[in-house]
Amino acid sequence: MNRILEFDCSCPTTETRLFCEELFRRIPRNKGLSSSVSGGSSDYQELRKKKKYTLLDAGDEEERSNVGVGNEKKDSGESGNGRRRYRKRRQEEEDEEEETRFQHQTKEEEMKDKMVRRFKDTMKSEIVALREASRARYLKDRVKKKLEEIRDEIEDDDNMFGGIKLSEFETLRQNYKRRSVEVIKSRPEADKDYYEMPEAYDRDGVINQDKRFAAAVQRYKEPGETGGKMNSFRDQEVWEENQIGKATVKFGSKDKKTKSDDYQYVFDNQIVFTKTSVMDGEKYENDLCSDRQQESQSRDKLTLFTKHQDQRRNLPIYHYREELLKAIKDHQILVVVGETGSGKTTQLPQYLHEAGYTEHGKKIACTQPRRVAAMSVAARVSKEMGVKLGHEVGYSIRFEDCTSNKTVLEYMTDGMLLREFLVDPQLSSYSVVMVDEAHERTISTDILFGLLKDLSRSRSDLKLLISSATLDAEKFSDYFDRAPIFKIPGRRFPIDVLNTKAPEPDYLDAAVSTVLQIHVTQQQGDILVFLPGQEEIESAEEILKHRIRGLRSKIAELIICPVYGNLPTDLQVKIFEPTPEGARKVVLATNIAETSLTIDGIKYVVDPGFCKLKSYNPRTGMDSLLVHPISKASAMQRAGRSGRTGPGLCYRLYTSYNYQNDMEENTVPEIQRTNLANVILTLKNLGIHDVVHFDYMDPPPVEVIVQALELLTVLGALDIKGELTLVGRRMAEFPVDPMLSKMIIASEKYRCSEEVITIAAMLDVGNSIFYRPKNKQVLADNAKMNFYTENCGDHIALLKVYNSWKEAAFSTQWCFENFIQVRSMKRARDIRDQLEGLLERVGIMVTSSADDLDAVKKAIISGFLPHSAKLDKFGLYQTFKNRQTVHIHPSSGLAQSLSRCIIYHELVLTTKEYTRQVTEVNPQWLVEIAPHYYSQKDVEALKLKKMARGEGRATQG
Questions:
Q1: CB contact at 8 A, 641 and 340
Q2: Nearest partner of 552 among 143, 164, 823, judged by Cα
Q3: What is the pLDDT of residue 214?
Q4: What is the pLDDT of residue 33?
Q5: pLDDT-based confidence at 803, cuts 50/70/90?
Q6: Parallel/antiparallel/unpaired status of strands 648-652 and 885-888
Q7: What are phi and psi of 363, to 5 degrees?
Q8: Under the phi-then-psi rule, with left for phi > 0, alpha for psi from -120 to 50, and beta for the rest, what region is 820?
Q9: % residues pLDDT > 70 (the chain)
Q10: What are the C-alpha distances in Å from 190 to residues 135, 143, 742, 850?
Q11: Phi, psi of 366, deg, nearest 5
Q12: Which of the 8 DSSP states describes residue 763?
């Protein structure tokens, strides 16, 4: 109504107002309100503007009403109250409308979120379903492909091995494949979730009259109609089948295989063995130790220390602990005999330590003939005692000392104990000395026997134990004034010894055939094969691999593990790794495995009966490394390696007659077949002047002693009377060969000690610097020749190798790239460091003459005076003194060049008389350096000789 009045330009009268009110009452309010509200947002906004306009002009309206007739004031007040009520009502309606709109918007957002979540859940479930469906399709296709692969394998096997007698394993594998195909083919029928009636012959549309009447007409069919088989429904034919069966009756199980079917021939040459003897084991110890082993295996969780203690109790020596300690207490010298594996090396020093023999600062010394054995045994004992290696338990070998002030058990090489006499002739720091592996009879061991025997007479408190693994203990007992013998059984199981019926012409081929024969016919158990040297081991390895490749899957896996001195360490440790299930390990080893190595799991031993021994000829001054028959003692040692963990078999590739009549009882001691120059120098330094009548267990030949004295005199270590000179005393300080020590002493004169000790260290390592794998021989040879620049010779090449390795920061990768043994180089570095320390001890300054290689060569000549050779007119080398024809070894860098005069490190006899580590020198230097040994006449004669075809040249000096 107010809105109508606002459109009137004149002043509203009472009649007009009444007319408007009447008109307003006739308008339906709800309908008008709803229409105004539903008119859209634009009408609603316009209405609000109008309402605001009325509120703002309320004062002006009041003024206009005041200017008008006074009696209209009352009507104006009533009209204002109506407008306020209308605004209030409109405000409430607007609030309700806003709240309703907000609720609708909230519901829409909730609905939208709900739809989004539902969409995501739907997509996720659909993706999972799609993935499962895809996986199912893939597996279905995979089954088809796998089925095709198995069918192809079956077809290939039928084509390749059809008509060939298969082994039991291969037959089982083929049957497994066929059953797998049948199972896979039957799966589609099994996967159906409904049942189908089997095919019937009377189904609609597929009526089969033949099947319907098959049972009725079966008895009337002729044999030809049944595929060649007789009709079993006919009585006459049944009777005939029974008669034929009686005529061809076979005894035994119908399906049983004959004994010849158990194995197939995988190689032609089989060696016939005969059982000649049985080495009995200690049955009581066997049962007792087996009980302890079962008891040990029943403990699931044991600490490492507890395991070691349990293993100690399982050793045979454990049961004789108290008796052994009592015997040591009652006797000053005791000979202990125990087979390898009895525990005498590791347990006996511990028993003495526990009994109090290391009190008051005393130590126990245990000598070993090999440095590897000293290191490994010390590491084992330290673990058993639960101490760190180098503290209470340590080892001492040449150029390496792993001991401390806390050390009470010291394992050392026999040569190191020999040098202990130089420092302390009374061995005052030791309460017990144990000479282990005495049966090996090394030079140092034999010298120790004489020194310790004499020392025991002056030191009554010193206990001396002589430990041996052989039964030849009477000889040791007689030498040590009838010392008592204490025997410890070591082998717990019997060993069957088998010999060949006839001698084998080729022991290497026979050994390989025997290994395959054992692998195919015998039960599980590893094989140990003894071969003379590295060359034979590598040849046997190649032959075995070749034959195994030819047999393919006809035999089980055979793991070949070689072990010899020059083999890298990472390959040597493979012999101690456990054998995988279903496989067999064969260890190809030298005689180092007789006593020094204990390999678990060995059940079979193959003994060709040969070994390589180094012998020295004093007339020619030449060392020979030749193959010799082993002794009976070595044969017993080899056989005993198979009876440690179970009953064993030893296959000897020689006849019983050869064993009884051709073999020596024991191996010739090393002191009777080697150069004694180093031994004589040591004895002279100890004050023993009468080296000929020294108390040797087995005296060496007198001519060998005389030749050693002559060599030391030529080197200046002894004077004319045989007394030790100042040079000789300085030479004795170096634990190397006298020729090497003289070369080091001479380096002081030529001011090249730094280069000379490097060469001495490399020479002392031996011939294990360069590694020549069979599949990379050309690359290895080319890498080696890179160090032989300008025809420098082997000595200078070794110097270049070490200096190059040093420049490469002693890199292991550099060694691999140049085919050089890392282990040998590291040992050479340790030796060089020790030699450098000894230079200060003898008062020699470390000097270098890297630019003057002639000075280095002169120092080499000073040490190796007798080792010189000259080229004759026929292009052959002859030694200066003995006029013996020699050849340069093919491994030398000078093998293809002809030099007028050479100096060599050693002369060995293999297939020829070979000189190793050769360097070309000026012949005039020989007279300048050693006028007492070489004459000018020899040199002049060399200059006047004519060379064939102008070959040969001399170094200018």
A1: yes
A2: 164
A3: 63
A4: 43
A5: very high
A6: unpaired
A7: -125, 165
A8: beta
A9: 78
A10: 20, 15, 90, 87
A11: -130, 115
A12: H
SS3 437: coil
Cβ atoms within 10 Å, residue 264: 15
Q: At what angle do helices 677-685 and 702-715 cross, to 10 degrees?
A: 70
Give the span between the Cα atoms of 74 and 65, in whole angstroms.
Answer: 10
Q: Is the pTM of this model over 0.85?
A: no
The predicted structure's pLDDT at residue 99: 87
pLDDT at 57: 44
Cα separation, 121 vs 118, in Å, equals 5
Start-to-end C-alpha separation, the chain: 141
pLDDT > 80? residue 213: no
194 has pLDDT over 60: no
pLDDT confidence band for 486 (50 / 70 / 90): very high
DSSP 576: G
Q: How far apart are CA 353 and CA 358, in angstroms?
A: 6
Please answer whether residues 901 and 871 qualify as being in contact, where contact means their C-beta atoms are separated by less than 8 angstroms.
Answer: yes
pLDDT tens-place string over residues 920-956: 999 899 999 998 888 887 777 666 554 444 344 444 4
Spatial CA neighbour of 869 closest among 844, 848, 889, 899: 899
Q: Give SS3 for 668.
A: coil
How many CB atoms neighbour CB 3 within 10 A?
12
The residue written with tokens 């405000």 in the block is: 91
Amino acid present at 795: H
CB 874 within 8 A of CB 867: no
Q: Is the dihedral of CA 813, 814, 818, 820 positive or negative?
A: negative
**Do 797 and 788 meet the contact criterion of CB atoms below 8 Å apart?**
yes
Q: How far is Cα 258 from Cα 686, in angstroms, rounded to an integer?
A: 74
- Give the distance, in angstroms, between the CA of residue 70 and the centroid of all CA atoms in the same chain: 125
Q: Is 885 exposed, middle or buried (0-12, 13-18, 19+ CB in 10 A)?
A: middle
- The Cα 538–Cα 541 span in angstroms is 5
The predicted pLDDT at position 141 comes to: 83
Q: How far is CA 955 from the centre of its chain?
A: 48
Q: CA 765 to CA 758: how far, in whole Å? A: 11
What's the confidence (pLDDT) of residue 956? 40
Give the pLDDT mean for 681-708.
Answer: 91
Q: Which domains does the chain have, with CATH numbers?
A: 1-66+80-91 (no CATH), 139-157+168-187 (no CATH), 315-422+429-448+464-488 (3.40.50.300), 495-672 (3.40.50.300), 864-950 (no CATH)
* pLDDT at residue 231 greater than cutoff 60: no
Query: In this structure, what token pair is assigned to residue 191?
Result: 């996967």
What are the two backbone dihedrals, phi and then psi, of residue 173, each rounded to the nearest 5 degrees? -65, -40
pLDDT in tens, 404-427: 999 999 999 999 999 899 889 999
Residue 299 has pLDDT above 60, yes or no: no
Whether the per-residue pLDDT at 128 is higher than 60: the answer is yes
837's CB contacts (< 8 A; 6+ apart) are: none
Q: Which residue has the tokens 């300080």?
A: 733
Residue corresponding to tokens 């605001």:
52
Residue type at position 727:
V
What was the pLDDT predicted at 191?
A: 57
Token digits of residue 901: 């005069």
CA distance 933 to 929: 9
Strand partners, 615: 624
Decide the pairing of beta strands 333-338 and 485-488. Answer: parallel
pLDDT above 70 for 829: yes
Alpha helical stretches, state H, 677-788? 677-685, 702-715, 726-732, 738-750, 753-765, 777-785
Nearest one of 834, 796, 833, 803 to 818, comparing CA atoms: 803
State how far the Cα of 830 lies from the Cα of 836, in Å rounded to an integer: 10
**CB proximity list for 432: less than 8 A, separation 6 or greater:** 349, 352, 357, 364, 365, 462, 463, 464, 465
